[in-house]
Write a structure and sequence with these properties.
3-stranded antiparallel β-sheet, 48% helix, 190 residues, alpha+beta, 7 helices, two-stranded antiparallel sheet, 5 strands
């Protein structure tokens, strides 16, 4: 586990920690979560969601509200792939969409934008999963040497920060506007 933290967290030595942690005072949860956000930069999940997902043509998708500590599972059934959030199930068209929605369910989002282009969902799911896991691992690294209760509070705070920022970006429209012109060739002049 520690090798995974070191391989994913770039800041292994205290002199390389973000400036919020170098000052010598004991930082609060917001400062530590800010340091995690600063460390991730382009890989911060709300940033990926805002810049990569919302720039595409998307549709809105509702997720069930997860209870505290609800298990998020992807299940393969005879009818296809389902995302299980606590006791509720959401039918998904494919595995990549289920993985994509699972990231947002783990963060606690109830409405999310899903790209129409299914070929892009898998890549976005990879980036979002990696960013979310890296945020939690960097949070563990930043809270190194602290009590378990503090680590759990920091983890919850980071997840809550991700959820609030993703909700601030917002989901897509329920029914997006389509171009009414379907003509594919330019008009011919006579």
């Amino acid at each position: 586990m520690e090798a995974a933290v070191r391989s994913l967290a770039r800041d292994e030595r205290p002199e390389e920690l973000p400036t919020a942690l170098q000052r010598g005072r004991v930082p609060n949860l917001a400062a530590l979560a800010g340091a995690v956000r600063e460390e991730l930069g382009e890989e911060w999940p709300p940033r990926i969601y805002g810049e990569r997902v919302r720039s595409l043509r998307t549709r809105s998708h509702a997720l069930p509200a997860a209870a505290k500590n609800a298990r998020i599972e992807i299940q393969h059934t005879l009818l296809g792939v389902e995302l299980k959030v606590g006791r509720k199930r959401v039918s998904c068209p494919d595995l990549s969409t289920a993985r994509y929605l699972a990231v947002f369910a783990r963060a606690g989002c109830v409405a999310v934008a899903v790209p129409y282009d299914i070929s892009k969902i898998s890549h976005l799911a990879d980036r979002l999963e990696q960013g979310f896991e890296r945020a939690l691992l960097v949070g563990e690294h930043v809270a190194d040497g602290r009590s378990d209760a503090f680590r759990k509070r920091l983890r919850r705070f980071i997840v809550e920060k991700v959820r609030r920022e993703e909700e601030a970006v917002g989901p897509a429209e329920a029914v997006p506007q389509f171009k009414q012109s379907t003509r594919q060739r330019p008009p011919q002049s006579i």
